[in-house]
Amino acid sequence: MRTHGWSGATPTSDDEAVERLVAAAKESIDRGGPDLRIADVARSVGVTRQTVYRYFPSTEALLAATALSEIGPFLEDLQAHMSGIHDPAEAAVEGIAYVLERLPEERYLNLVLAPGKASDPAAVTSDLALSFGRMLFDKYDIDWRAAGFSGSDMDELTEHTLRILQSFVVDPGRPPRRGDDLRGYLRRWVAPAISGKRPRTRAPRA
Q1: For residue 110, what are the CA distances in angstroms to 71, 87, 205?
Q2: How distant is the alpha carbon of residue 33 from its chain centre?
Q3: Which of 81, 163, 181, 200 is 20 to 30 A from residue 171's alpha carbon, by CA?
Q4: E strand or H helix at 119
Q5: Distance CA 134, CA 161 (A)
Q6: Rounded distance, CA 64 to CA 117, Å?
């Protein structure tokens, strides 16, 4: 753990240091909006920018950590909303639609998936994004393994879902699809890929 500065109150662990930096970032966002500056966070906790960068290599990493620290209530709402949906294809459709519809209301989740962030080509396949995607699927009322989805299937489904979410966030359409129109589109073009899933067989090795 690094001990430089901290306004005379050195954290007792790296975890505490991270918590204090995330709390300072949250205060900065609440006060001034999403244009977070590492310098402001560093000043708030009494350290240098270099100290912040030791824990978070970029502003995007700090924004992402702040967003993830605040998604508990959202995940609880998602779980309640998805309760009773046991068909994997319908769950994928409703999950995508629900996240897209809630995104404007979710200040911290929006920090990660807003156009300025989601348009980063690497963002959708980052470890953080994939971890978030798996959190979503874990909240669905589905036994994915019993439905025939292996661990690698879930990894690919998570990636595919995030790519779809990214495309709608970056370009919602003209006009943007909403409600039944959005769900109808997803049922026509996303659900069949999941409904038609069959156990994969390995090609013979040469």
Answers
A1: 10, 28, 45
A2: 19
A3: 81
A4: none
A5: 10
A6: 10
Kindly state the tokens that stand for 103: 């995104």
pLDDT digits (tens, 9 = 90+) for 141-200: 999 999 999 999 999 999 999 889 988 988 888 899 999 999 999 999 999 999 876 444
What is the length of the chain? 206
Is 20:10 a contact under the CB 8 Å cutoff? no
Name the strand (E) or helix (H) holding 97.
Answer: helix 88-102
Return the closest-CA partner of residue 62 out of 120, 19, 114: 19
> What would the two tokens of residue 143 be?
């036994």
CA dihedral for 158, 106, 86, 176, sign (positive or negative): negative
CB 161 within 8 A of CB 96: yes
Tokens of 23: 């709390």
- Predicted TM-score (pTM) of the model is 0.74
Strands (E), the chain: none
The angle at the Cα of 138, spanning 133 to 141, to the nearest 5 degrees, equals: 130
Give the contacts of 185 (CB within 8 A, at least 6 positions apart).
177
